[in-house]
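Q: How would the structure tokens look for this protein?
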Amino acid sequence: MNRTKDRVLVRGNLTPLHAFSFASVTGIVGVSTLYIYANPLTAFLGASTLVLYTLIYTPMKRLSPLNTWVGSIVGAIPPLMGWTAMTGQVDFSSLLLAGILYSWQFPHFHALSWNLRAEYSRAGYRMIAVLNPRVCTSSTLYHTLGLTAICSFLAPILELTTWSFAIDSLPFNLYFVYLAYKFKVNSDAQSSRKLFRYSLLYLPFVMLLMLITKYPIDQHSLAKDTSLLKLLETRLEHLNRPIKKVNKNQDLNKSTFD
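A: Here is the predicted structure in token form.
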């Protein structure tokens, strides 16, 4: 494929053994780092992305058009890992954040793959854009509608963001829906290209808006205190212990001299 022909492994600049060795070392180091410095749940999610991508998603490209749905799960896990690293748990808000990344990948990848259908077909990849174009364009529209519902209703309802996010993100989502609709009605190179390019802008803009309008942490209930805050408190207590001992000794010496 033209899209991948210049990659170092394809060109033979790296041998499969070198690539496997590097991936194994970085994977083990990465998961171990998450286990030690974050928590076991985040490390488990990190290991899951490696397994899903290498052992399930990649082989599925030649076996089933459902590979895009599995690959989207892989892309949705990283924000979930950020949440679990902070809180030590998975809740509805974290799944909502992952849902944004999951749904975003459908208009993004379907628009990308549309103009590469001939190359995917020659390479033997069973992409939905090749095998069922109607499902490709329909799922693109459905997921942009899903993004609109997540951003304008579920995110503020679940206190992931304030209601300002629902209003501020609405124009971005409506335009996304419009481009997806145009892609469904008139599925050509121009409509897919516009949709793909906008998907590259959509995600950072919406993430930035979400950051600006995030729900204030001090307004959450005490039951939602994060493990990171508890960890910081524990470490601060640990740091204060020797200081307290020194102060006690100083007070004892002072009282002795008095």
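The radius of gyration is 24 Å.

DSSP finds twelve helices and no strands in the chain.

Upvote if useful.
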